Amino acid sequence: MSLGPLMISLKAKSLDDEERGWLASRAVGGVILFTRNFADPPQLEQLVAEIHSLRSPPLLVAVDHEGGRVQRFRAPFVELPPMRTLGHRYDLDPRSARKAAVELGWLMAAELKGVGIDLSFAPVVDLDLGLAEVIGDRAFHAEAEAVAELAGAFADGMQAAGMVPTAKHFPSHAGARADSHTDLAVDRRGYDELFDDLLPYRRLIAGGLHSVMIGHVAFPRLDELPASLSHWWIETELRRELGFAGAVISDDMNMAGAAAYGTPAERVRRALEAGCDLVLLCNCPGAVPEVIEALEGYSDPAAQLRLMRLRGRAGPDLATLRASLRWRAAKAAVGGLVEPPALELEG
User: Fold this and answer.
1) Domain of residue 74, CATH code
2) 7 in a domain, yes or no?
3) Which member of 88, 137, 181, 317 is catalytic?
4) Active-site residue among 118, 187, 197, 251?
5) Is the pTM of this model over 0.85?
6) How far apart are CA 204 and CA 165, in angstroms?
7) Is there a catalytic annotation at residue 187?
8) Which pLDDT score, from 0 to 100, does residue 238 have?
9) Domain interval for residue 263
């Protein structure tokens, strides 16, 4: 059985019979995990192993585990600082910042690989233009060159741990004040004004990037549709102009930025028709059956091949990993990035 074009979320820390039925469908290609699915590493490892055991080839298991505000699994996983911390270091010492970015990317990916997870949707390559609060300190820096260097180093670390990086949120969430999770997000800049936003993608694609997550921001001077539903953004700009040959993954189709464009099933189909290879549908279990039914008979052999390349390679289990000198060095690098608290002076 091949991997389908739909990635869904789960309700709790273990699978129920309904979810096992969904995951058996040819329409489904993977699962994205959230904090509600995590109790401790043994439980998480068992859950991931069961998901993988249901199909051949195994379903993809993914998570948003960037660091800072967006890290689904906390202690005993190492808590990673927001990527802005690397940007601050870059301003003082670019070489040191690049080295630390490699360590953070490796550590994040190695720990997730240690419990069997295939993908973390990172790094964020949006610029910090001071407009999008939903991005904020998730961004490495305001300058495109700095973002390209730090994201590239972070991606190198992920790949060294055996995980494929996913650059997000193409083409940019930097110029939209609204949060596409809760509102329609619009960026009114023209194409020439997006050159810096696209620079990190150009660099990462030139380096062999295999995965991009596309956001729900609309750029009405270019296309009225949000990028996730836009054939122009995906096929013309990303694939033809930028030369991207990897997997295109949509942001969550249950977000408000996409919700105005039909039923869940209609949104998913529109994203696939626009050129997405894998479409996320999260936190709306009631919609999963209708979407699976709407995807009956859907097939895209080229997309399936691109998805198969996202699996990466297996790594050591978590106990073996944490006993290694490599893990200790990376953990120390994280500690070195965290700024000490400011002193509170009396009087």
Assistant:
1) 3.20.20.300
2) no
3) 181
4) 251
5) yes
6) 10
7) no
8) 98
9) 60-332
